Amino acid sequence: TGVAVVDALPAGLTFLSASDGGTASAGVVSWPLFDLPAQAELQRTVTVQVDDPFPNAAGLIANSATVADDG
Hints:
6 strands
């Protein structure tokens, strides 16, 4: 078992790359499961390109990832 990290990219972004073995499928970036000790911290990075023209008239991009124990 391990920790699962998933990031659903908002509309208007094109996936370019992800750190630590992250891959994208259908606009969702996910990373291989990993162990994370209590009180530990880590960082995962996603690189995207903003589409041109950007579909959001307000020009705002909001993004969040989900972190969960797979057990």
